[in-house]
Specification:
heterodimer, A: 83 residues, mainly alpha, Non-ribosomal Peptide Synthetase Peptidyl Carrier Protein, Chain A, 5 helices, B: 215 residues, alpha/beta, six-stranded mixed beta sheet, two-stranded antiparallel sheet, 6 helices, 8 strands, 22% strand
């Protein structure tokens, strides 16, 4: 999986969940700066990433992730683990 | 129920037979005795059932006397149910998601979890439009679980817990329409148990006069 491709797909997922244009979701943009979040936002992102990449993300792996870069690292780790 | 009693017996449940293999998210309404419905479900249907409830404290302000009562009530429920509550924090909601994805079930009020203002859709019920909180619908949609209203109330000296129709959908809109249909049926059958009449009667009346929408 190419890093560029992965991060763009992650950005698209965040864009869809946060209801903001994808160009606003810069790789290092923090979720809370993109719009209002609540207790369900992270669960939504985790589920959307799982659907997009066909992986299972462990809750512990999410840690303090807040940017597309950080979510991309989690996705890549999950993909590697399941390969 | 007294402060010294830490068990609840003889709860009568109906409508909770398994019809699918999916985990289930039980939704409580502002209706009857949601706490006893949770205890009944946990005792008789699913021992691993977890409940999501708003934390007491700064994020859930209330008058002192009510706070004191609520604190004791939560302690009693946790003891009677044999499990601590999940709160509404991000980490607790993620735990609830894990629990559902692991094939277990979760119980929550229909306006928990999520931001009740941000996550709401206008729905029509009883001749008026009302905002339905959709956080619980979102949790059901993203985990692919079934959703079922669970209603506890007293009848003939017993606690009964009734399960509404099991609904399933991949979007909050699809689930919301089904839940509103269930809600309408529940209000028709047991109108005296619904807590929301004081907020709703005027809305129906005014809804007839003008297509007014209410928050």
């Amino acid at each position: 999986m190419q890093q560029r491709d992965t991060i763009d797909r992650v950005r698209q997922v965040i864009s869809d969940v946060m209801h903001v244009p994808m160009d606003v979701v810069q790789p290092d943009a923090i979720l809370e700066r993109l719009g209002e979040t609540d207790s369900l936002t992270m669960a939504e992102i985790a589920s959307a990433l799982e659907a997009e990449f066909g992986i299972r993300i462990r809750t512990e792996a999410l840690g303090e992730a807040r940017t597309a870069i950080e979510f991309t690292a989690i996705v890549q780790s999950a993909v590697s683990a399941e390969a | 129920m007294s402060g010294r009693c830490s068990t609840v017996r003889d709860i009568e449940l109906s409508g909770f037979a398994r019809t699918t293999q999916r985990p289930r998210l039980y939704a409580a309404l502002h209706f009857g005795s949601p706490v006893l419905a949770y205890i009944g479900l946990r005792q008789q249907v699913e021992k691993s059932l977890l409940v999501i409830a708003r934390e007491l404290g700064d994020k859930n302000p209330m008058p002192g006397a009510k706070q004191q009562f609520a604190t004791r009530k939560v302690a009693w429920v946790e003891k009677a149910a044999g499990a601590p509550f999940l709160g509404t924090s991000e980490s607790d909601v993620l735990r609830a998601r894990d629990h559902l994805l692991g094939g277990n079930s979760v119980y929550a009020a229909v306006d928990v979890p999520g931001n009740v203002v941000r996550r709401a859709e206008w729905m029509r019920v009883g001749g008026a439009e009302m905002l339905l909180a959709t956080g619980i619908l979102k949790l059901a949609a993203i985990t692919g679980c079934d959703l079922q209203l669970a209603l506890g109330f007293h009848r003939n000296g017993r606690i009964v817990v009734h399960g509404g129709p099991v609904v399933y959908g991949s979007t909050t809109v699809a689930l919301g329409a089904q839940v509103m249909s269930c809600l309408q049926d529940v209000i028709n059958r047991w109108p005296e148990e619904w807590w929301m009449w004081p907020f709703f009667v005027d809305r129906v009346q005014e809804g007839r006069d003008a297509a007014t929408r209410y928050n």
